[in-house]
Specification:
By secondary structure, the chain is of the alpha+beta class. It contains seven helices and eleven strands. The protein starts with 24 loop residues before the first strand and ends with a strand. A hairpin with a 5-residue loop joins strand 2 and strand 3. The longest helix has 19 residues, at 247-265. It has a seven-stranded mixed beta sheet with strand order 1-2-3-4-5-7-6, with helices on both faces. The chain folds into two domains: 25-196, Gcn5-related N-acetyltransferase (GNAT) (Aminopeptidase, 3-Layer(aba) Sandwich); 209-288, no CATH class.
């Protein structure tokens, strides 16, 4: 779910955004029926009882007030995914809060989320907006890879139960809604190909690993956390499947990682990287005590 400087290059977003080789077209949502499709897609992904669904009228108004509601459509005009965000003042400056990025389950692993974020970026760059903020669940490895590795955004803050303890969505289970707030500097002159090519492998010199006791379904460790220049915090490779199969283990992951992130970030560490070891089936954040 959901979801922030140097002089920006001139990028003009177009509603007739060219099709990619797979026939997917990205453009702004522009009709009542398409806004309603965005509402239906939210229910499809987060469930009928999800309390955070954004209604069609709010999507439409946000678009009129400088926000972005853009969709990815297949060759038959079917909505495959959409991104929604609002423009306003953030810390006294004009900025954009990206509230939702939704991709239909049958359209995953086609780069649609990545393309929607860049369409959003291009749309906002022409308005003089330099940063986009959004949130994501630190336990969702897929989103961590997209946000921190492919897009190059920065996780700036960890917030416990950002959306409250219960949203009514089965996707969230009983884990609460802890979130990273991320910042994407869209005005920075960064080569997107370099960002996309960043390796997602474990650095053997990254520092000690907090081996999460949730792997063994044990009681979350309450002992001292290691002090080191760089520390790795492990998360499960697929928290959504774990919520369905073993909710107690999923909750243990939340408990231990919540403690680790709040402890380290509260002592001046910052999230420096996200990496994965596919052969091991393990994923890690690296937190660093320095800006290097």
């Amino acid at each position: 779910m959901p979801d922030r400087r140097s002089t920006a290059p001139t990028i003009v977003p177009r509603d007739d955004h060219p099709s990619d080789l797979d026939g997917i077209v990205l453009r702004r949502i522009d009709s009542a029926s398409e806004y309603q499709q965005c509402v239906e897609l939210q229910h499809e992904i987060w469930g009928e009882s999800f309390s955070g669904v954004v209604p069609a009228v709010i999507l439409s108004l946000a678009q009129r007030l400088g926000g972005v509601v853009a969709g990815a459509f297949d060759a038959d005009g079917r909505l495959l995914g959409f991104v929604f965000g609002m423009t306003g003042l953030i810390d006294g400056r004009l900025g954009h809060w990206s509230d939702l990025l939704a991709v239909r389950h049958t359209a995953r692993d086609r780069g649609i989320g990545h393309r929607l974020k860049h369409f959003q970026r291009e749309s906002l760059a022409t308005l003089g907006i330099h940063t986009i903020h959004w949130t994501f669940d630190p336990l969702v490895a897929r989103n961590a890879h997209l946000n921190l590795v492919k897009l190059g955004a920065t996780a700036s803050e960890y917030v416990i139960d950002f959306y409250g303890e219960e949203t009514g969505s089965s996707l969230h289970g009983s884990l609460g809604t802890d979130r990273f707030i991320v910042r994407w500097d869209i005005a920075a002159e960064t080569d997107r190909r370099v960002i996309a090519a960043r390796p997602a492998q474990v650095d053997p010199d990254a520092g000690p690993i907090i081996v999460n006791p949730a792997r063994g379904h044990a009681r979350p460790e309450l002992g001292d956390l290691p002090i080191a220049p760089r520390v790795r915090i492990e998360i499960p490779p697929d928290i959504n499947t774990l919520i369905e199969r073993d909710p107690d283990a999923a909750l243990a992951w939340r408990t231990t990682t919540r403690r680790a992130f709040t402890w380290y970030l509260g002592r001046g560490y910052h999230v420096a990287a996200f990496s994965a070891a596919p052969s091991m089936g393990r994923c890690f954040y690296t937190v660093s005590a320095s800006e290097a």
